[in-house]
Write a structure and sequence with these properties.
Number of strands: 2
Radius of gyration: 23 Å
Shape: elongated
Structural class: mainly alpha
Mean pLDDT: 86
Order of helices and strands: HHHEEHHHH
Distance between the termini: 51 Å
Organism: Lentzea kristufekii
Protein name: PadR family transcriptional regulator
Domain Transcription regulator PadR C-terminal: 90-163
Domain Transcription regulator PadR N-terminal: 7-77
Largest sheet: 2 strands, antiparallel
Helix content: 55-70%
Strand content: under 5%
Length: 181
């Protein structure tokens, strides 16, 4: 999700200023993606530049923003467009494991086990949070996090089984290269 579209969705509820937007974003996502207030105001400036939001007159030292018609069109387009797998962030766990396999001296099984332990703790915490009352938006975000943690555990099981069958390819010999002094 982009911060840009998240802020537009929140402004569709009504005018808000930066700190209100940050608090509403944290509330809607259960704090799973904390926003820096500077990031909120930088994004608001870009949204205003692109005519997606408009700044309203200051009120008690705060400048609220409202979504424009152009912003509503952009928001509708965003909601109507599916998220493509390639648009999602890189998976640091997968990259870390791939590099661990090819880095001499790394105990790959230990890397997998360390990640499994951390993911299991995270899953337990999410499951504990699930027992507490919450609004539907937060519960849906929490469900997604639970499903992702469960999928990661299944993937780690797969990695562990694949490592048992893995036979590393011999590393090609390098030729000595003289380094000029």
């Amino acid at each position: 999700m982009s911060v840009k579209h998240g802020l537009l969705a929140l402004l569709e509820r009504g005018p808000m200023y930066g700190y209100q937007l940050r608090a509403a974003f944290d509330s809607a996502t259960g704090g799973t993606w904390p926003l820096n207030i500077g990031q909120v105001y930088t994004t608001l400036s870009r949204l205003e530049r692109d005519d997606l939001v408009a700044a309203l007159p200051e009120n008690e030292g705060q400048r609220p923003y409202e979504i424009t018609a152009h912003g509503r069109d952009e928001l509708k387009k965003w909601f109507a467009t599916p998220v493509q797998r390639g648009d999602r962030p890189r998976d640091e766990v997968a990259i870390k494991l791939a590099l661990a396999i090819t880095t001499p001296g790394v105990d790959v099984a230990k890397v997998v086990m360390t990640q499994r332990t951390a993911t299991m703790r995270t899953l337990q915490e999410y499951t504990r949070l699930k027992t507490q009352p919450g609004d539907l938006p937060w519960l849906l975000v929490l469900d997604a996090m639970i499903f992702q943690a469960e999928a990661e555990l299944r993937w780690l099981d797969h990695c562990e089984a694949s490592l048992l069958r893995y036979e590393p390819k011999p590393v090609p010999e390098t030729t000595d290269v003289e380094v000029p002094r």
